[in-house]
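Here is the promised in-class demo. Please do not try to memorize the tokens; focus on the logic of going from shape to residues.
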């Protein structure tokens, strides 16, 4: 079995000067690196979106010119109760704020 390993130097435009990114971990830099490798190696056509299944949900990457745009999974917002004392603290902050 042949295993191809890619090392991506993130945050640089010169070899061996950036942060080596492990493409097996789906942090933002590793996701960028993984998408880049998939497009550059021809594993995915350059004009196609790349999708990653994460514990948070579906994360997608697409090319936008020279940039890679990531669309992270989001949770829907919902109302929650204010923590005890928040309103009093905000009122005090407003009353104690310096005026110009």
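The designed amino acids, position by position:
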């Amino acid at each position: 079995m042949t295993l191809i390993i890619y090392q991506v130097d993130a945050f640089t435009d010169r070899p061996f000067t950036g942060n080596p990114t492990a493409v097996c971990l789906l942090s933002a830099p590793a996701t960028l690196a993984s998408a880049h490798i998939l497009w550059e190696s021809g594993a995915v056509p350059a004009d196609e979106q790349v999708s990653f299944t994460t514990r948070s949900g579906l994360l997608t990457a697409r090319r936008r010119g020279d940039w890679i745009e990531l669309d992270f999974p989001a949770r829907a917002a919902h109302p929650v109760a204010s923590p005890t004392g928040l309103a009093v603290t905000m009122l005090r902050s407003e009353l104690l704020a310096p005026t110009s």
